Structures are given as structure tokens and as C-alpha cells.
Amino acid sequence: MKNCVVFNDLSGYGNCSLMAAIPVLTVMGVRVHPVPTAVLTRQTGYDRYSMEDLTGFMPQFTADWQEVQPDGIITGFLSNPAQGDCIADFLAVHRTADTLLVVDPVMADDGSLYDGFDEARCNAVRRLAEMADVLTPNVNELALLCGAEYTEDPVAVRQMGARLAEDHRVVAVTGYRQGTEIHTLVFAGGDCTDLAAPLRPGSFSGTGDLFVSVFTGGLLRGRAPAQAAKQAVDFLSHAIAVTHGTDPETAWILKRLWRICYEQDGKKDFIHGAVRRHGVRSDYAAHSHRCRRLYSCGRRHDLSQRAAAGALGVPGCFHRRCVF
After folding, report:
1. 79, 11 contact by CB (below 8 A)
2. Among positive and negative, which fits the CA dihedral 260, 21, 88, 96?
């Protein structure tokens, strides 16, 4: 199992930041080691919130995690400019040549800096961005990283993305709106992949955190950047559709992510992993895979099959049309 350290805030209300990264990466088979940069009563999109800065505590993670060898590291919200130095110290100890560093340069959106951000905090984010293998800015943050004015002009956005990609392995520019669609531009290996999804009215806080989590999970699972980004865009598109509709069922969204992950990985890998890790009979694992894929099977399960489903972490409601 891959290990991923995530530097981000913990908000008690509002499902974003660590509250998005931990369940999503876990569902994708990545073990998460969270490092909270701050604890907030509510995420900063609300008019009123309280925040406890954890800058003074962060060096303890570097000191106490001597045995941690992460496969991936994600950095997100910084509540203090000094946290950039704390993360740099952590990288100096725990980052190896094989560690994937993903920097989500949280600074601004729609032409404005986020609440509480100033030039000092933005500079701390820029210094981390210089170290990154992968960057996931929105269009506003892309301009800030390039020292340019905020614009959504198609030519300018592509030029800035290509320029940033010259110094990084992968750059995924999110939230690029064109007409009735919202686009994600993935720059990797000299190519640019344009992924489009329907643009829905309203504001959906935490979509950036979800994108970074699914995208990083895909990269750690060996997907190509464009494929991992498509997986993230597909998941977000379905999640927003459910949230925007009449039945915002969180469990359904996670099931959708599970389906995306394991359908693309293939039946064979799923069955072998189930047999190896849980001792589940291969025919039961194959049947459970079909249920995950189709939500339907038309077979009656005996107690052994029910136990197999439980061992695989499939809630009973996942087998929507199965008769237990």
C-alpha cells in the first residue's frame, strides 16, 4: 500500500481539506498520514470562523516520524508563512528521489486572494511550488505563480500552463471556464490534454481538494497524468451532479469513486488482491466485483458470500439488487 503525507487544514464544518483527502485517498488504497496546518471551526468560505494555527507544533512531525518513508506528499492550505519553512524541513528529511511531491498552491480564486492571505503567505506557497513534481493551480493561482495578471483568455492560460510545465513534471490547471463547460488542462511530457465537464451554477467548496486527492491517488497507483486527471474530473462531475441535485448522498459519491478506480484497474487485479489480503474465495471475489461494477447480480448470497462482502469492505447497500 502506498503512503501519502498530506499537509492541510482540518475544518470542523465544511467537508474540504483533510476531510476530503483522508476518505478519498483511503478508498483509493493509499494510506494517509495527515499533518494539520491549522484547526478551523469552519472552512474559510464562511463569513464567520475561528482558526487555531499549528505552526509551532508542525516540527514535531518531522522529529517523531523518522521511520516514515512516504511515496507521496501533498501540500495545501498554509495558515502562516512560516509553515513553508516547516514543510521544507520535513521534505529535507523524508523526501527521496522516488517521492512524488504534489503542491496545491492554495492562494486565490476568481480574481481575489483567499481570506487572510497576503504577499508573505503567497511567497511561502511559491517557494513550495518551486520544489514540486506536480502542481495543481486554478487559473487565478496559475497567474500568481507566473507573475501575471489574472485572465481566463484561452491563449494566455495555455501559454502560462506550458511555461510552468517547463520546470515541473506535471501541471494540472483546474477551474478553467469556457461557455457552458469547465475545463482542466493537463500539461505533461510536452503535451496538453484538455478535459471538459459541464459547468453547473453555484459554488462548491472543496472541489480543489477532491481533485488533488483523486489525481494524486491515481498517480500513486501508476496512472499516466492525463488518465489520473480524467479519473478526478469524472468523479468530481458525478459528485457535483449529485450535490446539485435532490439526493446528495455522500455514500453514493464514494461508491462512484470506488467504481471508477476498480473498473479501470481491472477485474483480475481486484480478485487477486481480495484473495491475497482477505482469504476470500476467488469465485466470491469475482461475484463481488461484478456487483460493484453493475450494482446487480440476480443471485442469492449464502452466509459465506456475505462474509466475503464484509471482508472486502462492501456495505450491504452496495449490492442494490442482491438478495441476502
Report:
1. no
2. negative
Please state, in angstroms and rounded to a whole number, the distance separating the CA atoms of residues 56 and 124. Answer: 16
Burial of 66 per CB tally in 10 Å (0-12, 13-18, 19+): exposed
From edge to edge, which strands make up the β-sheet containing 134-135? Answer: 51-53, 30-40, 2-11, 72-75, 100-103, 134-135, 170-178, 181-188, 191-198
**Segment 187-236, tens digit of pLDDT:** 999 999 999 998 887 777 788 999 999 999 999 999 999 999 999 999 98
Amino acid at 113: L
Distance from C-alpha of 7 to C-alpha of 21, rounded to nearest angstrom: 10
Amino acid occupying residue 127: R
Dihedral Cα 7, 10, 11, 12, nearest 10 deg: 170
Reading the block at residue 88, the C-alpha cell is 521544507
Contact 235, 218 (CB under 8 A): no
The rounded distance, in Å, linking the Cα atoms of 69 and 73 is 10
CB of 296 within 8 A of CB of 321? Answer: yes
Is 0.90 surpassed by the pTM of this model? no
What is the DSSP-derived secondary structure letter of residue 189? T
Angle at which helices 267-278 and 250-265 cross, to 10°: 110
Does residue 270 have a pLDDT over 90?
Answer: no
- Phi-psi sector, 222: left (phi>0), alpha (psi -120 to 50), beta: left
- Whole-Å CA distances, 26 to 189, 195, 313: 29, 25, 12
d(CA 17, CA 68): 22
Q: Which three cell numbers stand for residue 22?
A: 483522508
